[in-house]
Write a structure and sequence with these properties.
0% strand
């Protein structure tokens, strides 16, 4: 999540809304205490890569994950 770059000025870490948003988006938050660090590392790694094919491939993977989450949400709405 790109929002992992946003942190509180006094603590240097994100507020509770960061993990709440991840859960709302149905992202796998196994450990709230390390989730931000993992996401921050992933964002830094993604944006520091100089291989355009790798960047595109990663973006497509993320897009497919998001589309899967949207599909699941639509199915839940249909079941309601």
């Amino acid at each position: 999540m790109l929002s992992s770059l946003v942190v509180a000025q006094d603590t240097g870490v994100p507020g509770p809304g960061f993990v709440e948003l991840a859960r709302h988006l149905e992202l796998p938050v196994n450990n709230p205490d390390t989730y931000w660090e993992d996401e921050l590392r992933g964002v830094a790694g993604f944006w520091s890569v100089h291989d355009p094919v790798l960047v595109l491939d990663s973006a497509i993977d993320r897009l497919m994950d998001e589309l899967g989450a949207i599909k699941a949400a639509i199915q839940r709405l249909g079941d309601a």
